Amino acid sequence: MKALVFHGPGTSAWEDVPDPAVQDAADAVVRVEAVTICGTDLHILKGDVPEVRPGTVLGHEAVGEVVEVGGAVHDVRPGDRVLVSCITACGRCRFCREAAYGQCRGGGGWILGHLIDGTQAEYVRVPHADLSTYPLPGAVDVKDAVLLADIFPTAYEVGVLNGRVAPGDTVAVVGAGPIGLATIATAGFFTPERIIAVDLAPARLDAAKNLGADAVALAGDEAEQLVADLTQDLGADVVIEAVGVPESFELCTRIVRPGGHVANIGVHGKPATLHLEDLWIKDVTITTGLVDTRSTPTLLRMMAAGRLPASSMVTHTFLLDDMEEAYDVFSRAADTGALKVVLGGPRHDAVTVRASRQER
C-alpha cells in the first residue's frame, strides 16, 4: 500500500510500505476513506516531537471501513464504517477507568502516527479497536466526520471544558487555525457573553467571525487593547492558547483577568516563559492537556443533528495520492488560505478487499 512516511525532520514521502495486519486479538484493520492533516503533523516534521522515529507512517485522524478484526474485537466487524479516534484506549488501566484515555498506560494514548504507524495511508491498524473506533452515523458526511477524530474533541475538551467556559464569560481564543476555530464553535455551546478571536492572518479572523467570534484582533498590542476595552481593563475570563509558540502563550497570560483561566491547547516545540513575577498574585489557573476523546460520542450526535459547523472548515480536498501536495498546501496556510484539508475518495472495491484479506 501507499503511505506518508516520516524520514526525519524536514523529510517525508508518499511511498510503498507493507500492508498492516492484525497483530493482537484486539486489533482492527481499517481501509481509509478520508484522512486529514493536523498541525501536530507539521510539528513532527519540524522535529518538535522527537519520539516519532524515522520510518513511521504519519497521521492520527481517519474515517474508513473495517476490513479485518482480531478475535477479541466484539463491537465492530468487517464492513462497518467507523471514525478512527486520534486516541487509543485500552479500557483497563487506571487512566482509562477515569476516562483519561489520552494518558492510557495499557498500550494506548496518542500512539497512531506517533509511536506506531498512523492513518495517512491506504490502510491502518487500530489497536484496542472496540474502544478506539466509533460507528459512523449515516447522516454524517465523511469529510465532516474526520474532523471529529481530533480537532473538535481537542478544542472542546482541552480548551472549552478545561478552561471552564461558563455563560456570560468573555473568552479569548489566541490562534484561529483549525483548532482555534473548533474552539470558537464549541465555546458557543456555553453561551459566553463574547468570544474574541486573535490571529495574525485576516482571512482566519474572517473565518472566526463566521464560526461565532464576536470580535477579532490581530495578535500583539491590538489584541491586548481590544480585550482591555471590552472588559473595562479587567481581562478575559478564559483565554485559550491554540497556536503552540512562546509569543502566543505569553500573550494569553497578559490578557487573562485575575482569577481567570488560561487553557493551553497548542503543541509547543520551544520553551515559553512563565512570568510568575506577574502571575503569582493574580490567582490564575493554567491548564495543559492531551485530548481524551471522551466527548466524541456527544460531538458525533451533535454533528448528526446539524449542530456542529464542520463543513465550512474544510477548504481543500485531495485524493490520497495527492498527499505530498496536500501537505504543501496545508503547511503554507498563510498563502493558500487552507484551514482543514481532507484527502480520500473511492480507491478500491471493498468486497474484493475483504475477500483478499480473508484468503490470507
Automatic annotation (TrEMBL):
Residue ranges of every copy of the Enoyl reductase (ER) domain listed in the record: 8-343
GO molecular function, one term: zinc ion binding
Entry keywords, A to Z: Metal-binding, Oxidoreductase, Zinc
InterPro entries for the chain: ADH-like_C (IPR013149), ADH-like_N (IPR013154), ADH_Zn_CS (IPR002328), ER (IPR020843), GroES-like_sf (IPR011032), NAD(P)-bd_dom_sf (IPR036291)
CDD domains in the cross-refs: FDH_like_ADH2 (cd08286)
Recorded superkingdom: Bacteria
Cofactors named for this entry: Zn(2+)
Pfam hit, one: ADH_zinc_N
Gene3D superfamilies documented for this protein: Medium-chain alcohol dehydrogenases, catalytic domain, NAD(P)-binding Rossmann-like Domain
Record PROSITE patterns: ADH_ZINC
Family (UniProt): Belongs to the zinc-containing alcohol dehydrogenase family.
Protein name: Alcohol dehydrogenase
Provenance organism: Streptomyces antnestii
